[in-house]
Amino acid sequence: MTLERFKRKWRLFISDKVRWRRDLRLFSKVLRGLTLIALFLAMGYLANRYVPTQHLAWRALNVDAPIGLSTKLQLMRVSLSPSSNCMALARGAEAMNSIPADPLDGDGPCGWTVARLMYGTDTVTLAPGEATLQCPLALGQYMWLREVDKAAVEHLGSGVAKLHHAGSYSCRRQRGNNSGAWSEHAFANALDVTGFTLNDGRTISVLKDWTGTNAVDKAARRKFLREARDKGCGIFRVTLSPDYNAAHRDHFHFDMGPSSSCR
Residue 227 falls within a domain, yes or no? Predict the structure, then answer.
């Protein structure tokens, strides 16, 4: 074998070895990618089969399921979807007492196009009367009332019979003056809750019981109200309590506006 022939064979060998290594690296990358895809698909399948709907962000909202890790995101998606989707969920809710509200064209930007006239649930009524709520907020109230009823039984030994509120619609700005951002109340997209009446007749007041009263069960009342606030944080875009500022010392504020807050 001549030297030139040996050199050609050596170059071919080296070239083949480089190509082989390059092909092996490419194959390894493809194999890793396919493995990750298969892993994600398997995880998605197992999650869809065994994880409750309310914990999976990609699943649709089930208003009759307990509150979960993804409930707030699922409800937000409903608020961004066509109104017909929300109205269908409201009609299908097992224990929700509400009917469609007539549209209202108020002063300036105030009013609503699609809303629900919310009376409460099969076990909890709104007092002093029904409230007009934009549909996503009505769904949120329905789910929240179920969670609050459970919390009342746990902490106070009696479920909720009435939800006391200070109204939903008010054509005003956030700070009650003639300038600044409009309040979500101007669009029936907020509800102020002042307290609860339990099945055993006790009244739980945000104003009187948030920091404690002379009631024998004052510690239980405080725990219940804080859990009610916390449950709201897992549902609504904005949940404000007496911890927020003095203006909210006597009520919870819940809304489905564009901002986000849990205080």
Answer: yes
Beta pairing class for 190-198 and 252-255: antiparallel
How far is Cα 12 from Cα 199, in angstroms, rounded to an integer?
89
**Which of residues 27 and 99 earns the better pLDDT score?**
99
pLDDT, one tens digit per residue, over 87-126 is 999 999 999 999 999 999 999 999 999 999 999 999 999 9
Q: Domain of 31?
A: 1-50
- 183: nearest Cα among 244, 117, 109, 235: 109
| 144 token code pair | 């929240």
Residue in 244, 143, 250, 235 with CA at minimum distance from that of residue 192: 250
| Greatest alpha-carbon span in the chain | 108
Predicted model pTM: 0.84
Which position has the token pair 């999976």? Answer: 56
Q: Which residues pair with 160 in a beta bridge?
A: 198
- For the chain, the first-to-last Cα distance in angstroms comes to 86
Task: Please give the Cα distance from 191 to 129 (Å, whole number).
Answer: 13
Q: Which residues of 167-190 are buried (b: 16+ CB within 10 A; e: fewer)?
A: ebbbbeeeeeeeeeeebbbbbbbb
Transcribe 145-213 into DSSP letters: HHHHHHHHHHHHSS-EEEEEE--S----BTTSSSSSPBPGGGGT-EEEEEEEEETTS-EEEHHHHSS--
State whether 202 and 142 are in the same domain. Answer: yes
Structural tokens at position 117:
């006239």
Do both 105 and 17 map to the same domain? Answer: no
